[in-house]
Known about the structure:
Elements: H1 2-20, H2 25-34, H3 40-50, H4 57-65, H5 71-92, H6 97-114, H7 140-157, H8 162-172, H9 177-187, H10 194-202, H11 208-231, H12 234-256
Helix pairs in contact: 1-2, 1-9, 1-11, 2-3, 3-7, 3-10, 3-11, 4-9, 4-11, 5-7, 5-9, 5-10, 6-12, 7-8, 8-9
Amino acid sequence: MYLTGLLILGIVAGILSGLFGIGGGIVLVPCLLVIFGLDILQANATSLTAMLLPVGILGVWEYYKAGQINIKESLWIALGLFLGSFVGGEIAVNINEKLLTQLYAFILLCIAVSYFDLPKYFHKKNQVVVKEYPVISKSFWMYILVGAAAGIFAGLFGKGGGIIIVPLLIHFFQYDAKKAVATSLASLQLPVGLPSVIIYAKEGYLNLLFAALIAGGMVVGAFLGSKIGIRISSEIFKKVYGVFLSAVAVYLAIKYI
């Protein structure tokens, strides 16, 4: 039953991965902590290892067919992820675990709030401001920096890094929400978390069987999630994502703060 639960968890994480462009770790780590009784470093190691394989490749293919992915940009982000992952892993195994969780909850909440576009609700009803922003073309090193920031975050918190990549692409590169999710998901298919996984494994925090079961479930889930994501409007997509992040942040705040 315990092992079956890990497989089901992988399917759920895969659906969220395909839907929101995240690595799936945002649901894996809390569930491994609360339901399966792992400590945060064991949960981080299991989550990152499960995401080493291209578990979201079927979802990426669906987004690619829909014209939502720029392969070159995804590869530059992937390079940054790989570099940042080493830094994040090193910090994680040398920091207080409670502080690590509190910091994660705070960052999640900040990101979630940004998705609700709160300032627009304070505009006068008769004041209509319409702004159209073209997608901003950036140098390759800017995408590497995005990946590096996400990689550090991923190594620290056992996440795929998409939770950082997606909002950065939307707010600073003017990506459409779906394109941001698709680009993020594509960048996470390479083994970008390998440096962190090696660090966690050397410290004895890795269980390969747990990671393998979760990875198997994520392959199926990511395909289903991408199918749903392609059909949701971008505006609704952003709101659903914001609610999702808020719920996780509040849960962690109640449990660990």
